[in-house]
Design a protein that fits this description.
The chain is mainly β. The protein has a single domain (about 20-450), classed as Neuraminidase. The chain has one helix spanning about 195, and strands spanning about 20-25, 45, 55, 60-65, 85-90, 95-100, 125-135, 140-150, 150-155, 165, 185-190, 210-215, 220-225, 235-240, 255-260, 275, 280-285, 310-315, 320-325, 340-345, 350-360, 375, 380-385, 395, 405-410, 425-430, 435-440, 445-450. It starts with 19 loop residues before the first strand and ends in a 5-residue tail after the last strand.
């Protein structure tokens, strides 16, 4: 589950953190196997790493799988910059396949190497790399999975075992030197990238994509739009012409729609958890390719459409889709302020419910910012990547609302060869639950963390 961006957990302490919210965290686990065994405590105090890379609780250890600037095992070039969203897939013989986004803009230090058959736009520096690991987390292969894209931030997995990587930009050809339009979703096969190639799923819309979630019952794809400044983004659904058709089926096209909540033009105005809206409507997007007008600005009729600032995380749980508004600020043009919302949409009832509202975190220096990536732990809690200033953490959240520090990245020690770690991103667990994989955004580094997760 990928969910939200920015900082809400901000206590740079090895002992814990503070977070304020209203609602019930168990709501987020509805329909998951982990809900039967939700974690209630953390794993203890962080132990300083003698190598100065990653502080973990006692009993846990890490392995560096991949570093920015190293040679890719495939020999295709260097490991690219800006490691972001990531997912783990089960392979044969207890192998694990990782697909890792690279949120590279035109100014990125190390681009994703162009590979024949896997490159969309030679001027694009973003894309994905794929790693194959054995049961002991030894890297068996590392290669380009897609190249020539731009600002690959998050995405989501499909029921048929592929990764949908999302471009968080809407730059058109001729902007930043690009030869082609950007702002699309691309499908990536974790085991054989040439099966999926570098084909934009144009019917799914061209806008500032963040994340997706697929309804496993009917193949409907839900999409978030991360628009920071007004006019804010929309929440979309894509009705595929070939639902649940497997790898490549989304290329067959379909219909893109935007969500309208009657009487609610801006979701930020809803502040109370448990608020329910029935009769949610879905309106066809007039021009999904946004040839002349961004999709969020198009004409949706006299009733208008529903906007929200910083729509980011999106995941499926039980019979509903959850999505996140990372924050809202009236100074940016939002109708109201909040520190983060998590919404649940029930397709069968056409019902939208506000289930979690975040408040200011302890010692927040930049209020109004929220977590980055979120995933379920094997014991059923949440693992949250921090995106803020100073020391960077991966935090855990128990069902009871306890927040604890799970990992802490290296801080700036004042030497050119030891820069400060950037945010954490892409947290995910191996299919067997025995390993947490997480990225440091910059300098790009991918870690495997093992230990007593089921404790």
């Amino acid at each position: 589950m990928s969910a939200t961006r920015r900082q809400i957990l901000a206590r740079a302490s090895a002992l814990g953190a503070g977070i304020a919210f209203t609602g019930t965290l168990s709501e987020l686990f509805t329909g998951t196997a982990a809900a039967q065994n939700l974690g209630h405590t953390g794993y203890g105090t962080l132990v300083p790493d003698p190598n100065g890379l990653l502080d973990l609780p006692e009993g846990f250890r890490y392995t560096v799988l991949s570093r920015e600037g190293d040679q890719l095992r495939s020999g295709e070039g260097l490991v690219p910059s800006n490691h972001d969203g990531m997912a783990a897939f089960a392979g044969r013989g207890r192998r694990t396949h990782l697909v890792r986004n690279h949120e590279n803009r035109a100014t990125a230090k190390i681009p994703v190497p162009a590979v024949e058959g896997l490159t969309y736009d030679p001027a694009g520096k973003g894309g994905c790399t794929a790693l194959t690991l054995d049961s002991r987390n030894r890297v068996l292969s590392e290669r380009v999975a897609i190249a020539g894209t731009a600002v690959n931030c998050a995405g989501g997995h499909t029921p048929w075992g592929t990764w949908l990587t999302c471009e968080e930009t809407e730059d058109k050809a001729g902007t930043n030197g690009y030869a082609k339009d950007h702002g699309f979703i691309f499908e990536v096969d974790p085991t054989d990238p040439h099966r999926t190639g570098a084909v934009p799923l144009t019917a799914m819309g061209r806008f500032q994509h963040e994340a997706i979630a697929v309804d496993p019952r009917n193949g409907v794809v839900y999409e978030t739009e991360d628009a920071f400044l007004k006019p804010f983004g929309l929440f979309y659904r894509f009705l595929p012409d070939k639902p649940l058709g497997g790898t490549g089926s989304l290329r067959a096209g379909g219909r893109l729609q935007a969500m309208r909540v009657p009487g609610t033009p801006d979701l930020s105005t809803i502040q109370d958890t448990g608020a329910v809206f029935d009769g949610v409507e879905w309106v066809d997007v007039p021009d999904p390719l946004a040839a002349s007008t961004p999709t969020r600005l198009q004409d949706y009729g006299p009733k208008g459409i529903t906007h929200a600032q910083k729509l980011e995380g999106c995941y499926w749980s039980g019979s509903c889709v959850y999505f996140v508004s990372s924050f809202a600020r009236s100074t940016d043009g939002s109708a109201a302020d909040h520190y983060g919302q998590i919404w649940r949409y029930d397709p069968q009832r056409r019902r939208l419910t506000l289930v979690i509202v975040f408040g200011p975190a302890t010692d927040v220096q930049l209020p109004g910012e929220s977590p980055d990536n979120i995933c379920l732990t094997p014991s059923g809690g949440l693992m949250v990547c921090e995106d803020g200033n100073g020391a960077q953490h991966v935090f855990g959240v128990t069902r009871g609302g306890e927040v604890y520090a799970m990992a802490r990245g290296r801080q700036n020690i004042g030497t050119p060869d030891a820069p400060e770690w950037g945010e954490f991103a892409g947290v995910t667990f191996s299919p067997d639950g025995g390993t947490m994989y997480v990225n440091c955004y910059t300098p790009g580094t991918t870690f495997a963390v093992t230990g007593p997760w089921r404790r």
